[in-house]
Amino acid sequence: TDLISNSTVAYSATPGSFANSVTIGTYKDDVNNLGQHQVIVAGLLPSTAYYFKVTSAGSNGASSSSTNGGNGYIVQTSPGPTVTALPTVSGITNTGGTVTWETSVDANSAVFFTSNTAFTSFASSSDISTYATSHSITLSNLSTSTQYFYYIRSTDQENNTVYDYNVVNGVAQYYSFVTANDTTVPTFAGF
Fold this sequence. Notes:
Elements: E1 7-12, E2 20-24, E3 49-57, E4 63-66, E5 73-76, E6 83-90, E7 97-114, E8 123-139, E9 147-155, E10 161-164, E11 167-168, E12 171-172, E13 175-178
Antiparallel strand pairs: 1-2, 1-3, 3-4, 3-5, 6-7, 7-8, 7-9, 9-10, 9-13, 11-12
């Protein structure tokens, strides 16, 4: 856009119907962001055509929309896996934990993680040789008592990929967990 404005993407699998929407309500005003809008639309079905319109509204309430002059812009989602059970972390220790999730079809597994709250550098741990619907990746050599942010990726044998960034209201929030800080020394009893 040419003015400071928010962003809304309305969409549906029906031409001209925009029953679902995601709005990012921030107004950006700097050299890098004026005119730049990014809205993440999550939860779409694979192998499906979606029709969408974009709307931007300024702080004065004036808005403008575009549907590409018809039933909406068309986006065809790729075939492939969907995440059927959201990622969780178990077995958390001082230096690690195990991330598990499930997909709709056999796919490999990768977890990208960071303790950097700017989300600028992610390390990864993956198993690209095993294809399954249940996924489990153990993260190790992490720092004690530290919050880690992560997202997952699974790719099927036809090279179709799904990512799960924990999208909330069109923005990647990432999943997170905190490593333990167990300083208890084991004791021996019963000799």
